[in-house]
Specification:
single chain, 34 strands, alpha/beta, 33 helices, 6-stranded mixed β-sheet
Length: 943
């Protein structure tokens, strides 16, 4: 077994909380690393194995290249043998750019662009006719055949339906030796100083040649020369006009509409890319949405007057130029600034919002004199739009955006592409329509495509279609059949993003690679779990090693080798407590083994809560794939929203219900997805959404600052005798302001070394050794500990240390109650896992005084949690509900679903097949439903 060919051998790993461990991992096997949250699983998988793999890769670069990359620090480990190239598939890796979509990440969209550029058929957007393109030789043949024996004019179009006097253009044409032009359908001689009406739209063509078509050599030569000249001046388009008639024939080297002469550039993959100026819709720059002014945001209360701040962007009356202009407009339209806005005449409102530029006179009846006024007003709506589009300042852009809504672009209707790109079709579909289909539907369409293609198209498309269909199949294999290619990647959940990257990796068919995955089963319904495990097994079977950090029972049972890290979390973890096959694991006496064997389990409550009898009822939710759903949320209960991935759970809760409640209680501006009405809001008094986004994005943020307990600790330090003598205020003990902090690292404890095109690297500050404060501040001690020592305490230590200070004790105790006793108060937020960040937020909310009428929303709170952590977390949530609050959880974990009071199951499938309520009720009622996937798995848990 110890042969390095077959194992990865790690000796003396000490990253974070690992206790100098030695571990041997078999290669080309599916290995699961499990253990409590914070026990050191990620420290072993990512901070040791992956970090060393990365470092070795960078070591292969030349010294010149490495100077730009900076040395990646060697992980704290004595030796790693048998390591192959490492690819990590984490949860946090998708781009937040609005230009990144599922299609671009998986590269399927790149193949689609190639397919349309090479095998697409172009149609005219004017007439719907098929576009044609000719070579010069074909044009000569067609003219000779069609106009034999007739006199024709060969013309080059230079201006198409545009305004202007075009005097310079006519001079230029004359200088090139041409004597006639056709203006708006009439042939005229070129004269000196000739021009046309600048306010009308014109069509102008140069008359290149007038020729009688015959079947002789001279005519042929002359035709070829004229065609070349006409093409040169007319941008690869020419027109042929019979001298006797008015009918024009168009010919072009590019794709062209035979009736109207509009032409498209020859298609290249770029023409179908919304990230290239050649393909992006000009109106929305390829984003698919534009920002439009929302009048309700500018005038929140039409009953208010202008003087009392009726126009939100202007605020109350001030002695300023804008209000002077409004007074002049008021004189012109005969109203007062104290009138209610809804009584102001329509013409005046038009001018106030969209601007105007005019002079007018007012006769004073009292004095009998006439006064002249000038209005030169940009308009409030125009001003906001211009500020948003042109201002350099981010804060002004944010201010302007408050009065705007993001709406679908009117030009491209959300397809992000130019009009021309959408008129290239294959089997009656354009590329935009394909990007809007969900993956399952798209896969079916491609399977039936070859029989609808011509022989030439089949030859061109053969290889491209192979690539597309295999990639679509991998996406189906990891359970993502409900996504569409144009879905923006910033709207994907962590688990979805990870599974997309997994599908891309399977698609690349690499061999001999070590893959490390971080909980790929997040957000995946039990039904789809089987597919995911098969995908990982297929990666293993083609000759790769797969290491998965995971808590999922099915995944652990199917692994070839399991490593259990513990025994507890944080400082009390970091040891290997058992390893071997899943069967060997069950014989051990670890927490994981006890949960796996059923000795320990999360108990099902003896009876479900009745609730308080009140409900919140949402009628007619229609966002995304919801099919006009009406749902009742009973209050005073633990509610679980379940359903397969992509069935519409997040749309219902996060995109519809939460924005409605948030706008009602806190005037939030996020627009809910469409719904008819909501009833019962009077029964709750606030809403709190606790998600898994990081609690801070910089090393300055930590659990103590986030939960606000640090303010209390700082106040406590100012009350020590030494601090009183020195006159230190709370600010002295803050690492965010000058005074008490170490100025070398500005209180962050680390120095940031900027890498020009890599993520910044953080190194410990050499002045304060990472303590964040200067020497004078650290001299102040409370019970023998400095402020820096307090930040280094674990929550468990701090609970004992501050037990006599109620204000501090209450906040720290709640962090301990949610199972985070092992983290330190000053731990950088950037190092907390998603599950830990969510529990810090939960602790912050729990430490506040609650009213018993609060509505809590949690999205998959069990992410990253071990069975034991779930038990602790659910005990905390149960206490919340016992006080009368309502807790709504979106969840796939059966341990949570089985203890809910009320289940709302959404389905039946994901994507277009979802968006309906399958069943509702207590778990006992739900399992009677034959059609619900959740019911099938829940039945086993309850039996």
């Amino acid at each position: 077994m110890n042969n390095t060919e077959e194992t990865i051998e790690i000796i003396g790993a000490r990253a974070h909380n690992l206790k100098n461990i030695d571990v041997i991992i078999p290669r080309e096997k599916l290995v699961v690393i499990t253990g409590l949250s914070g026990s050191g699983k990620s420290s072993l998988a990512f901070d040791t194995i992956y970090a060393e793999g990365q470092r070795r890769y960078i070591e292969t670069f030349s010294a010149y290249a490495r100077q730009f990359l900076g040395g990646l620090e060697r992980p704290d480990v004595d030796k790693i043998d048998g390591l192959s190239p490492v690819i990590a598939i984490e949860q946090k890796t998708t781009s937040k750019s609005p230009r990144s979509t599922v299609g671009t990440i998986t590269e399927i969209y790149d193949f689609l662009r190639l397919l349309y550029a090479r095998a697409g058929e172009a149609f005219s957007y004017n007439t719907g006719e098929k576009m044609v393109s000719y070579s010069d030789e074909q044009i000569k043949e067609l003219i000779s055949e069609t106009f034999n024996g007739k006199r024709i004019n060969i013309l080059s179009p230079v201006i198409r339906s545009r305004k202007g006097h075009y005097r310079e253009l006519f001079e230029q044409i004359a200088k090139q030796g041409f004597v006639k032009v056709r203006v708006d359908g009439k042939i005229r001689d070129l004269e000196y100083g000739m021009k046309v009406d600048r306010y009308k739209t014109h069509d102008i063509e140069i008359v290149i040649d007038r020729i009688a078509v015959k079947n002789d050599e001279d005519t042929e030569k002359r035709l070829i020369e004229s065609i070349k000249t006409a093409m040169y001046h007319g941008d690869d388009i020419l027109m042929v006009l019979e001298q006797e008639g008015d009918e024009v024939r168009y010919f072009s080297r590019n794709l062209m509409c035979p009736s109207t002469g509009i032409s498209y550039p020859n298609p290249e993959p770029n023409n179908f890319s919304f990230n290239s100026p050649k393909g992006a819709c000009e109106c929305c720059n390829g984003l698919g949405t534009t920002n439009e002014i929302n009048l309700k945001k500018i005038i929140p209360n039409p009953k208010a007057s202008i003087k009392n701040g009726g126009f939100a962007p202007l605020g109350d009356y001030k002695n300023s130029w804008i209000f002077k202009q409004l007074e002049i407009i008021a004189q012109k339209f005969e109203f007062k600034l104290t009138d209610a806005i809804d009584t102001i005449p329509q013409g005046a409102m038009e001018m106030i919002l969209n601007g105007g530029n005019e002079k007018f006179s007012v006769v004073s009846k009292v004095m009998g004199i006439t006064k002249d006024y000038k209005i030169d007003f940009e308009g409030i709506a125009n001003f906001i739009k211009n500020q948003y589009e042109q201002s350099e300042s981010q804060s002004i852009k944010r201010w302007a955006k408050e009065f705007m809504d993001e709406v679908e672009c009117q030009e491209c209707h959300g397809t992000r592409l130019r009009k021309e790109a959408l008129y290239f079709k294959i089997h009656d579909k354009n590329i935009g329509e394909l990007a809007q289909m969900d993956i399952a539907e798209l896969s079916e369409w491609f399977k039936g495509l070859p029989e609808h293609l011509t022989e030439k198209q089949q030859t061109i498309a053969l290889e491209i279609l192979k690539e597309i269909t295999t990639r679509l199949q991998f996406l189906l294999d990891v359970g993502l059949n409900y996504l569409s290619l144009n879905r923006s990647s910033k709207s994907l959940s962590g688990g979805e993003a990870q599974r997309i990257r997994l599908a891309t990796q399977i698609g690349s068919q690499l061999v001999g690679v070590l893959y490390i995955l971080d909980e790929p089963s997040i957000g995946l319904h039990q039904r789809d779990n089987e597919r995911l495990i098969k995908s990982l097994e297929s990666l293993r079977d083609i000759g790769n090693s797969v290491i998965v950090v995971e808590h999922d029972k099915d995944m652990i049972e199917r692994a070839d080798h399991v490593i259990d890290i513990g025994p507890k979390a944080g400082r009390f973890g970091g040891k290997i407590i058992s390893q071997g096959t899943p069967k060997e694991l069950l014989k051990e006496n670890t927490i994981t083994a006890q949960f796996m064997s059923g000795k320990m389990k999360i108990e099902i409550p003896e009876k479900r809560r009745e609730g308080n009898g009140k409900t919140v009822k949402l009628y007619g939710a229609k966002g995304y794939n919801l099919k006009n759903v009406t749902v009742e949320f009973p209050l005073g209960k633990l509610i679980c929203v379940t359903g397969v991935s992509g069935s519409g759970k997040s749309t219902l809760v996060n995109e519809t219900l939460y924005p409605i409640l948030n706008a009602h209680f806190f005037n939030a501006v996020k627009k809910p997805q469409p719904y008819d009405k909501i009833e019962g809001l009077e029964h709750i008094d606030k809403v709190i959404d606790i998600d898994q986004s990081p609690i801070g994005r910089t090393p300055r943020s930590n659990p103590a600052t986030y939960t606000d307990v640090f303010s209390e600790i700082r106040s406590l330090f100012t009350q020590t005798p030494e601090a009183q003598i020195r006159g230190y205020k709370p600010g002295r003990f803050s690492f965010n302001v000058k005074g008490g902090r170490c100025e070398t690292c500005e209180g962050s404890g680390v120095r940031t070394i900027e890498m020009s095109f890599l993520p910044d690297v953080y190194v410990e500050c050499e002045t304060c050794q990472g303590k964040r404060f200067n020497r004078e501040t650290l001299e102040i001690r409370y019970k023998g500990k400095s402020i820096s020592d307090v930040l280094d305490m674990t929550v468990n230590e701090a609970v004992v240390f501050f037990e006599n200070i109620p204000k501090i004790y209450r906040k720290i105790k709640t962090i301990q109650d949610v199972g985070l006793g092992y983290i330190t108060l000053g731990q950088q937020s950037t190092t907390l896992s998603g599950g830990e960040a969510q529990r810090v937020k939960l602790a912050t909310e729990l430490s506040k005084k609650d009213t018993g009428n609060t509505f809590y929303i949690l999205d998959e709170p069990t992410t990253g949690l071990h069975f034991e952590d779930i038990r602790v977390l659910m005990n905390v949530i149960q206490k919340l509900v016992d006080k009368g609050n309502t807790v709504l959880i979106i969840e796939h974990n059966l341990d949570v679903i089985k203890i809910a009071d009320y289940i709302i199951d959404i389905g039946y499938e994901g994507g277009k097949g979802g968006g309906q309520v399958v069943t509702t009720g207590t778990p006992e009622e739900v399992i009677k439903n034959k059609k619900s996937y959740t019911a099938q798995f829940l039945k086993k848990e309850l039996s």
